[in-house]
Amino acid sequence: MIDKNTPPNNLSNLSWIEKLQKRWGVNYLQVLTILFVFAITGTTILLIKKPVLSFFSESGESNTLFSILYYLLILPIYNIVLLFYGFILGQFYFFWEFEKRTFRRIKQLFSKKK
């Protein structure tokens, strides 16, 4: 039986995984799953960039308008894809909390400070 809280012997020197376990309050297998979700989400966003570019530009070339639109659209698209993969891989709660923290921080950037 695999112990989900302990890394395999050959990976026991990876203290960064243990740091993530403590920071996120999850076990070893969940850390690996969460990192995998971030990786496949980033890859997915990279793969959809070209079709999005083609949609906004007939020639498929990047221009200033595209760059502005891309960066405005990428955050919500990234977050939706992140939640989707998190749901599929059983980590929806973690990513939902992650999203809420992220948007609270963004909101604080634009709110007036007293």
Automatic annotation (TrEMBL):
Domain of life according to the entry: Bacteria
The reply to whether Chaperone figures as a keyword in the UniProt entry is no
Looking at the Swiss-Prot or TrEMBL record, what is one Pfam family this protein matches?
DUF6787
**Stretches that traverse the bilayer:** 28-48, 68-96
A GO molecular function held by the record: transferase activity
Query: InterPro entries under this entry?
Result: DUF6787
Where does the record place the DUF6787 domain? 34-110
Q: Supply the name of the protein.
A: Prolipoprotein diacylglyceryl transferase
| Organism expressing this protein natively | Putridiphycobacter roseus
